[in-house]
Amino acid sequence: MRAPLLFRVYVAATSLLIPFAAWSETRKLRRQGVPVLRAHEKLGHASQPRSGGGKLIWFHAASVGESLSVLALITRMGEMLPRAQFLITSGTPTSARLVADRLPPRTVHQFAPLDAAGPVSRFLHHWRPAAAIFVESELWPQMLRMTRATGAAMALVNARLSAKSRAAWAKKPALAAYVFDVFDLILTQNDDMAQAMVNMHAPAGRVARGINLKSMSAPLPSDPSVLAPARVAIRDRPVWVAASTHKGEETIVLDAHKKLLEAHPELLLILVPRHPDRSSEVAGIVNSGGFSCAIRSRGEQPKKGEAVYLADTLGELGNWYALSDIVFLGGSLFPIGGHNPFEVVQADAAVLSGPHVMNFAETFADMTETGAARITPDAEALAEAVGMLLEDSSQRDAAKQAARDYVQGKSDQLSSIATRLIRMLKLEDETL
């Protein structure tokens, strides 16, 4: 297939911009504490050797959620392919740190190369992947076409593009067809996304519904050195968590908390904004709502009389889930798309969410039908749901059990997805 004009323009532009992008990206990583050797992985310079034995299967994900979502799949494929080696790439220091603590056997992590000829060429020359599996919406045109040119088999799994991304691809049909043609298999999260991929000129015969790999993720890690002092500070206070909140949602959550305090005066809200750089803004909202709060980034613990604990740090969500079995997921009270309910379930907590859950539409539809999740569209409904779960342990236990049953049903499908990938990517000889 001939490269469309827009692709050729993109390649030319990246060749001009790569010096500036390389400087910016490596500087950003260095500011976040990444050693210089590892920061240069962005330029395609590997920091680890490639093992000589077995085919190498490369997984590429964007950030924390996507990276963690494929670890169970890598583990299962590793059990089926005992001679294979695995590489997982991502783009953020947080994802690198969390993945490094949970790498499956025979797996290494690297930062993904920038989408330009030099970095991608160096990366591919070193790692020589037999297969490349991309996750969700990480569709870098040059990386995809150069990988395909090596002869590597390729798949897109857990495919999910936002409405904005779909509209953008729809305006570039020739480029979309050229990019999506690299994949031997495209597995989407649901039927609607499968049809959307076909509408965006993905090869219809290679598109199929898979499963949401985030349902396969292991529980988020928790740190005893963080949990122990928090538990001492909290003592026997009842606790609920509002996780991954976005701008505008904190006010609604705090209104619900104010109502709850009337019946539960010792209740503690652990408020976890999606973006920790909003910490000062959120602290101001908390204070203007009449609450005093402790702030995690300052090393503070919630004291008696403080009704809110502002957990404004990255990579610690597993700690806060471990402190409560009632979790409200933000990004859902406004049209943002919602966040991952599976992480809540795996922490053995009841799931609450607002109504705007486009990113997990089928998941929440199934979970609410079975009682595994509850939708709370406003402060009043949220206060009512949290109050019910606080006061009625049988209802709380029933919600948690329904959620566990739902996730267990999904996990039974993991082997079939792994088998399909092995077959479609022609990796069967690694089972010997």
UniProtKB/TrEMBL annotation:
GO cellular component, one term: plasma membrane
Keywords linked to the UniProt accession: Cell membrane, Lipopolysaccharide biosynthesis, Membrane, Transferase
Catalytic activity, reaction form: lipid IVA (E. coli) + CMP-3-deoxy-beta-D-manno-octulosonate = alpha-Kdo-(2->6)-lipid IVA (E. coli) + CMP + H(+)
Marked site: Transition state stabilizer: E136, K214
GO biological process terms, semicolon-separated: lipid A biosynthetic process; lipopolysaccharide core region biosynthetic process
Domain 3-deoxy-D-manno-octulosonic-acid transferase N-terminal residues, every copy: 39-214
Record bears the keyword Cell membrane: yes
Main localization, broad class: membrane
Phylogenetic placement of the source organism: Bacteria, Pseudomonadati, Pseudomonadota, Alphaproteobacteria, Rhodobacterales
Active site positions: E66
Gene Ontology MF annotations: Kdo transferase activity
Function: Involved in lipopolysaccharide (LPS) biosynthesis. Catalyzes the transfer of 3-deoxy-D-manno-octulosonate (Kdo) residue(s) from CMP-Kdo to lipid IV(A), the tetraacyldisaccharide-1,4'-bisphosphate precursor of lipid A.
Family according to the record: Belongs to the glycosyltransferase group 1 family. Glycosyltransferase 30 subfamily.
Protein name per Swiss-Prot or TrEMBL: 3-deoxy-D-manno-octulosonic acid transferase
EC number: 2.4.99.12
KW Cell wall biogenesis/degradation (keyword) present: no
Subcellular location: Cell membrane
Species of provenance: Roseobacter insulae
Pathway: Bacterial outer membrane biogenesis; LPS core biosynthesis
